Amino acid sequence: MTYEEFIAKVSERAGMSREQAEVISRAVLETLAERISGGEADDLASLVPEPLRPSLQRSVRKPALSFGLSAFVDRARVRAGDPGWFTLDAVRAVLMTLRDAVGDKEFRDALAQLPQEFEEILRVTA
Fold first, then answer.
1. Could you say which of 37, 47, 98, 107 is the most buried, measured as most Cβ atoms within 10 Å of its Cβ?
2. Is residue 126 scored above 60 in pLDDT?
3. What CA–CA distance (Å, rounded) separates 53 from 21?
4. 22 lies in which domain range?
5. Which pLDDT tens digit goes with each residue over 26-58?
6. Which InterPro entries match (predicted)?
7. Which residues 6+ apart lie within 8 Å of 54 measured at CB?
């Protein structure tokens, strides 16, 4: 998947502009990298389009932080500049597009490090 395809899919799924999709994609991927192990984040980074790789790569190796879906959405919203259009649907759109980009097995490996509520929001529209 190319960068343009990734952003177009997020834009379509979230019902927002291309520019908004770029902002939320980076914010969600950066938050995901903070939430999962560094090795898993690196694995995902190697499979996404190059312009998105820095969002998944952590410059400092720290243990993954533990927080649930609500805190995930809040952290990503702040990273995106706290826009009013940033919603749970936007997070879902990025995660579903990430699954398309990296493949089911790699995505499931990352999802296994997240609380069950993440799988539930993805199952609703999968």
1. 98
2. no
3. 16
4. 3-125
5. 999 999 999 998 889 999 999 999 999 999 986
6. DUF2267 (IPR018727), DUF2267_sf (IPR038282)
7. none
